[in-house]
Amino acid sequence: METSQYIDMFLDESREHLQAVNDNLLHLEKQPDDLSIVNEIFRSAHTLKGMAATMGYEDISALTHKMENVLDKIRNSELMVTTHIIDIIFQAIEALEEMVEEIAQGNDGKKDVTGLVNSLDQIENGKANQDTNEIKEEVNSFEAEKVELDEYQSTVIAQAEEQGFKAYYIQVRLNEDCLLKAVRAYMVVEALEAKGEIIKTTPETEALEAGDFKQDFTLIFLSNESVQTLETVVNSVSEIEQVNIQGLATTMEKQAEKAQHEEATSAESSSETAEVKTQGQATKSTTIRVNLERIDHLMNLFEEVVIDRSRLEDLAEKLGNPELAETVEHMSRVSEDMQSLILTMRMVAVEQVFNRFPRMVRGLAKDLNKRIDLQIIGADTELDRTVIDEIGDPLVHLIRNSIDHGIELPAERLKAGKREEGELILRAYHSGNHVFIEIQDDGAGINREKVEEKAVENGLITREAAKQLTDEEIYPFILASGFSTAATVSDISGRGVGLDVVKSKIEALGGKITIESEKGQGSKFSIQLPLTLSILSSLLVKVEEETYAIPLSSIIETALLKEEQIMSAHGKKVMDFRGSVVPLVSLKSVFNVPDSDNTENGSGHHAVVVVKKGEKMTGLMVDSFIGQREIVLKSLGNYLKDVFAISGSTILGDGQVALIIDPNALIK
Q1: Is the pTM of this model over 0.70?
Q2: Which residues lie below 8 Å from residue 151, measured CB to CB, with a gap of 6+?
Q3: What is the tens place of the pLDDT at every residue in 559-583?
Q4: Catalytic residues
Q5: Given 141, 201, 617, 622, which is the most exposed site by the fewest CB atoms within 10 A?
Q6: How far apart are CA 564 and CA 496, in angstroms?
């Protein structure tokens, strides 16, 4: 069978299934009893195995087959989900991803997966899991006992609680090598009786006195003392390995919930298999895959249509022919719909990149013995496909950096009065014709003094000049090549080792990176990326004789201000916008627009466009508003790529060129 023509389809679908397995594994780790997640993983693994076998990739097929066997045992309740099993499956997924990428590079996708296959074999045969289960059983053996009280004991406990006593469930484990178990049990009973009343022991008192039990025994105990006091009392007896004390009511509630959950799980598991099969049969693909180059070509052609559309609209307005005006209007509506569709085809949710990070953060946190809560906000923010393909590596660098250098160890965080679990936020949002991606942590922050010292040492700045700079001007030095403030550079990251690569990559994409940080409170790396999409909605404005386009997505409102409504604060012009003080920026001043003879602004009003970036707002002062237009974004080329506050140009319907404002650069 000739398979080369299907290779692209195989790669795309393999990546999708591996991502699905990856996401579901993370969910399974949090909900190990949810068999529907296991079924989802199993289905993806099964499909991947079938595709790989058809295409002749035997290593992928063999590894997914072993994974499938383990998953099958889990969904049939023959194996329990443990961290060890999740870890091994994650390792298998990593190996599979490497093999798929090898195939994408034109190689044969072969990889020595013997170790992983053996590990999965051991899990499947119960060897590896046996150890884990033994440990788990050992750890959880305290929970295995079921509390059963007769009517008399229940009455005594109820009456005691009415009098303010607390009922405790106490579990005691003696050392493995304890020879005089009966004596130790007696000593525990005697010590506890000094603090309250024992209602029941398991095993019975006679068995305890005879030493007729393994290492564990339990007591139902009434007392006024706290848990800590009782723990101290029990632990004062020698040869006690472990003691667990909790409220009796809590214990019984937990056991009741556990019993209910087990019943529900067993009832659901039989029906789920049939349900999953039904769903699988009913789902039909409603999508096709289109080569990106074809969409690019379609987009280029459509850009020309948009320019001609503007031209036709202007001509129809000038000629005043109703039939022509009607035809142009209809063509405009249809072409706007077409434009929307083509744009949607090129846009991809940034989720596609963000999806890889939960597993990476989990792995790094385990390696570094840190606890990290990763929050992803705005994963549905859409970005052009070409940018999506490039942005992954810079984000990996920044996230690794935040985890390694930013977020402290749990003990250090507690000492600093923070939560034990560090917070890492990955946020994406649109603003103007840009997309912002932020990596924010609540870690130790960047040490300005260290960065300043290193910058001076490396000859990047003089000591005198450094003193004049603000924190925001000092922090970017960590993006310089070879710049590192870390005493030791770890294999995970090092400030300066990868950040210069991040900076150059983002600049190559036409974006920029800014850093905010507060010592002891955390850092935020903000990446501003252009939407390389070339058609956008904008407001055309007039400044003297020049026309500028402001992206609609940045605009909150337009306003006409009277002279007396313009106020002054710290020597700068400001306005009152719904109770907020908003700075005013004159486009004429920013772009040094020359005065024209045709002065129309005799009304005493100032036209202002209020724009925003995140929570910040600024009023852009112009001479007049022209109206809303769809414009084609054209690059200014390499010679003019760094013009302040200008993101490109466009050709208007009358053939004139208008510059497109970058409002983010003007917002203060």
Answers
A1: no
A2: none
A3: 998 888 889 888 888 998 888 899 9
A4: 46, 68, 401
A5: 141
A6: 51
